[in-house]
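User: My instructor asked us to take a sequence, write out its structure as tokens, and then describe one feature of it. I'm not sure where to start. Here is the sequence I was given:
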Amino acid sequence: MPRRRELNQALADELEIPYIEPYEEALAREDVDLVCLCPEPERRARMTVAAARAGKHVYVDKPLCATVEGAREVVEAVEASGVRSQMFSLVRSSIGRRCREVVESGRLGTLVGLHAELLFAKGVAGTADLGQPRREQASDGRFTWVDSKRELFCVGLYPLVLFEWLTGSRVGAIEAATANFFFTEHQANGAEDFAALLVGWEGGLETTITFGRSGWSSHPSHGIHQVHLVGTDSTATVDAYRPRLEIFSDAPGWSQPGTPHPEDPMGFWSSTQESGGVTPKTDWWPLAKGGR
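Assistant: Let's start with the prediction itself. The structure tokens for your sequence are:
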């Protein structure tokens, strides 16, 4: 794929590292200790397994892979090789650290419940056919498209992993519901743009999560991002955008891009947002240490 190769070479040049094809040649190099992986989820398990078997530590973008079988293969390869692995998550984010501080402070008493809301304010929303009921079905193997993603995996994974880290518990039972509320692109590809999870954890903790992608104009900043913590003695809400400054002025209001970037119409990536004419939103300025 010439365009893919062109983009890969541009990234290598930016990082001042060699661009090597095929990737197996890079894995064979003795001066490579760690592999950072961000291919499509459909290829992620295969490449992660190859890196682990080559004795390389791995840092993988989320989601880990596209199938349960692929996840098992990754775990087996990492454990057999004795390397370290980590998947990108909210664990080291500002909101993750603040949630951990609240839990460890003891002010909540015994933690009995958690709720997270995470909606990405990207894409031109309002195009989905709300009269068309969603029919959830097993994946046909396709996970990502140029104009949409399976948001249950791509967004819902963030709070799910955060909750596991906060509680140190394992999932005991889980129920999910998916929907198409916002984008015709997701609808056409059979992918959800919104979902909700009810998760019961070993030990009795109950958690709920609502998440998805809601469109550029749905939020003054990047989208709703809150965690509600419920204890036997108290409750707390941690908001990724609090404390913040809110700007009120006579400046022109923010407008979503009129012509989306052809290679990234949903605005998934910051690089294509900039080149696609997406201007920064400036009404909210979060003040929390570490930013969002």
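For the description part of your assignment, you could build on this observation: The radius of gyration is 21 Å. Try explaining in your own words what that tells you about the chain.
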